[in-house]
Design goal:
Length: 219
């Protein structure tokens, strides 16, 4: 992302592998994924809200470990693999027909000393898993969380969201949004999308004035 790297990233935000933004909100998760040998039973649940970078961080881990990455929406009922490192994303949406396959995958990895990374917006205790044996094994998984963003990370996320739309925001706009929106990844994505849409519809520049109108807050 060479264009994005031209930004003056906020103080306190570091660029990790593959341009993952590291701050106090996610530094524990970033560090944990770099040390799978330290995970109890070599399995870990990465928990964070939508838009927090779970998938990005999972792909950083995949690139470093050679893991096979699975999406719960596409796991077949008879899925099998000999891979030693597995990532399963969005485990809270695991369909019931795939639970038996994931149960055997989990047990085979454990027996072979393999590694399992799970991602979800919810902790294992809230996953709706019908198979009791799988539910108990998932609930015993160690958890690391990505918290809602601090100011530094929220600013970096807003800048990245603009960059993804080929928009180069003024620093004053980023600072304004960081102060006035809800401190969440979802809120950042929402306001950037709304600003882009409003600017196109009204033929206006994306600036603090437009942001103040959309947020119904003083400029």
């Amino acid at each position: 992302m060479p264009d994005q790297l031209a930004f003056d990233w906020p103080t306190g935000v570091a660029l990790g592998p593959d341009d993952f933004f590291v701050s106090e909100a996610n530094e524990e998760a970033f560090a944990m994924l770099g040390t799978p040998d330290a995970w109890p039973e070599r399995k870990l649940a990465l928990i964070g809200p939508k838009g927090s970078g779970k998938s990005h961080l999972a792909r950083v881990f995949q690139a470093q470990s050679g893991a096979v990455l699975l999406d719960t929406r596409t796991i077949p009922a008879d899925f099998q693999t000999d891979a030693a490192t597995i990532i399963i994303e969005d485990v809270e949406t695991l369909p019931q027909y795939a639970e038996e396959a994931v149960f055997h995958l989990h047990n085979n990895l454990r027996a072979a000393g393999g590694t399992l990374l799970l991602t979800s917006a919810q902790p294992p205790s809230r996953w709706s898993i019908a198979l009791p044996d799988l539910a108990s094994r998932m609930q015993a998984t160690s958890v690391v969380r990505i918290a809602n963003p601090d100011d530094a990370l929220l600013s970096a996320v807003i800048m990245k969201l603009f960059a993804d739309r080929q928009i180069n925001p003024q620093p004053a706009l980023v600072q304004y949004l960081t102060r006035h929106i809800e401190r969440s990844f979802a809120a950042a994505a929402d306001i950037v999308a709304r600003l882009d849409a409003a600017a196109l519809a009204q033929g206006r520049k994306i600036n603090k004035g437009l942001a103040a109108e959309l947020l119904d807050k003083p400029d």
